[in-house]
Structure formats: C-alpha cells, structure tokens
Design goal:
single chain, 343 residues, alpha+beta, four-stranded antiparallel β-sheet, three-stranded antiparallel β-sheet, 10 helices
C-alpha cells in the first residue's frame, strides 16, 4: 500500500478573482483510488474496516452534502466546481468560466457512492447514510456532451453526426458544455468515467461505448498520445475500451502504434518519457495500462499477456516476442525468441 498525500489542489486563488469561488472538488475522491484498488485486489477486511471504508465514507459524505437537486434538469448537480486542477481551460483559450457538474466529479461521485454503499452493507454499518447514497447516485446529472467543431476535417472517422464526446463540464456563464478539447493535455477531465472509476466499460451500451471511444480518440489525437501531465491520463482509458471484436473507431493494433510513437518522440537517454511536466505521474503508467487489458487478446496480430510486470506483445504467433518492462523508468523493449514455458 502506497502512502497517500492529499493536497488541496484548486482550493486557492491564483490571481484571477473569478476562480476564487469555483474550485476542483474531486481531489479527495482521487485520493480514494489507492484505498479502493488495494481492497478490491486483497479483500483485506481489516484494512477495509480500519482504513478504506472510513476514507471513502468521508468522500461520500462530502458529495452527499454538496450536490444540489436542480428542478430544471431533474438531477443532482455539482455546483461551483471546475474540472482541471487549476480551474483553467488551457487549450480552450485560457479563460476560466465558472463551471458545474464536471465530468470528473460526476463519475467520481457515482463510483464513491457505489463503493461506500456496498462496503457499509458488507460491514453492516451506516444504514441511514447508505440509503442516502443509493438514492442520490442514480439521479446524478448526465455527463455533459458536446461536438468537436473540426472533427469531420480533423479525424479519419469524422462525419458531422459522430463528432460528439464528453465535455469536461458545463460552463455556467453560458449554460453550455465546455469545448471538448478545453484541456486535452489533462484528459482525465474527460476520461474519468472510464478510468479510474470504471463507470463506462466494454459492457456499457453501444451508444455510451461509442461516445466514450470518440472522446478518447479525439483528445488523444490532439495531444499526440503524450499529454503534458502524463501518459497515465491518456493511455489506460484507451486500453480499457479496446476490443478486437468491436474495433471502433480503429483496430487495436493502431493503439499500440500510437503508444510506440508517443514513447519514441518523448524518450530520454535514461528511458524516461519527458513531457514537460507530470514527472511523478509517469511512474508505472505502462504497467497500469497493460493491466487494464491483462490477458486479453486485442488483435489477431498483437496478443497481450501480463507476466509479473512484463508486458508481452506477441507478433506473428509465438515465434517472435517483444517484451516491455513497464516499471518506473525502465521503459525497455527487448526482442527475444519465445521459448517453451517462458511465461
């Protein structure tokens, strides 16, 4: 279990008065992820009772106390929130309008409410609060959707009727979704329903899945699959949506090609991918990405298998193998012959 450092990101003024009142609300929910991941992988009931549930419960209590039911939308909205860590739209003109119901808040709130309710039932505690969480969660606002203004011209699959994707939030000054690429260099603002919250996955309905895939590909194309704040914000969501049996908008092999191109363009002599920021956030990205699709066949030409921390890409059957060792700065590709019993 790694220690968790919680910081009040976005909870301060950064010179623009209009930011003072609308800050990012999702930081504590992000801090809950290690607790959730640890328990989900260990089922350590003592850890759940002593550490994971108390933390997640507090985050659930915050969202339950903070959301407001909007009679106009007939949904619970997250008021006075912003999506990006400094409340700006860095690739959307740099302005910082007040926002509500950021996609990242809505997805984390759904995830946190579900976990808190399930764990309170498991531990047989907090019955009244559980009922509140279970009541709010299904009535949270929908993720804001917008259309990429240049999608048809910019992307290979683009036609006017399929250029829609998740916006990072609704701008309250205009009551319209923010530009889809407002923070494409910090894409977790848009991708949070996929990773880490898992609210949208391959098991989602086809319309939702298509919307999620378009969002992932549009924003990652903008950043060339190497956003400033790190591969960790871009790759895992793409990996979670990869399916060779439903290769929309591109087949899985193309995903690997984009990963390789991003590494080739950013790799330093010590095998560290430098993207002008987010140093800590690069740690373990490839391992995390691979684990999203561990033991999944993602195309007829490229098969994935996870063996410890080794990312194995089979090419041309089992005769030729590429090994990626995706851990810390060891982004190494080793070519080897596949030997019997190697994995």
């Amino acid at each position: 279990m790694m220690p968790v450092l919680l910081v009040r990101v976005g909870m301060f003024s950064i010179a623009r008065d209009e930011i003072d009142f609308h800050h990012r609300r999702s930081t504590a929910a992000m801090g809950a992820q290690p607790f959730i991941d640890y328990y989900d992988h260990t089922h350590d009931r003592d850890f759940l009772r002593a550490w994971a549930y108390p933390f997640v419960r507090e985050v659930a209590r915050f969202y339950a106390s903070y959301v407001r039911f909007d009679n106009a939308t007939q949904a619970y909205e997250v008021p006075h929130a912003c999506a990006q860590e400094l409340c700006g739209q860095r690739q959307g003109g740099g302005h910082s309008p007040p926002q509500r119901s950021a996609t990242i808040d809505l997805s984390y709130a759904r995830w946190i409410f579900a976990k808190a309710a399930a764990w309170s039932s498991l531990l047989e505690v907090d019955v009244t609060e559980r009922a509140t969480w279970e009541s709010i969660a299904p009535r949270l606002a929908s993720y804001p959707v917008t259309t990429h203004p240049d999608c048809a011209a910019s992307f290979p699959w683009g036609v006017p009727d399929n250029c829609s994707g998740w916006s990072e939030a609704t701008n309250t000054d205009t009551n319209t979704p923010a530009l889809i690429y407002a923070n494409y260099m910090w894409p977790i603002s848009n991708f949070a329903p996929i990773h880490p919250t898992g609210q949208v996955s391959l098991s989602s309905d086809q319309a939702t899945l298509a919307l999620a895939r378009r969002t992932v590909w549009m924003l990652n194309n903008h950043s060339a699959w190497r956003p400033t704040n790190g591969l960790c914000l871009a790759w895992p969501s793409a990996a979670r949506l990869t399916d060779k049996h439903d290769p929309y908008p591109f087949p899985p092999g193309v995903l690997l090609e984009h990963f390789e191109a991003a590494l080739n363009s950013t790799m330093q002599p010590n095998f560290w991918p430098s993207m002008s920021g987010g140093g800590l956030e690069q740690v373990g990205t490839l391992a995390g990405t691979v684990r999203q699709r561990a033991k999944e066949t993602i195309s007829d030409e490229h098969n994935l298998l996870i063996s410890g921390d080794i990312f194995v890409v089979y090419q041309n059957g089992l005769d030729s193998v590429q090994y990626w060792v995706p851990y810390y700065s060891d982004y190494v590709i080793v070519l080897a012959e596949m030997g019997e019993g190697l994995c």
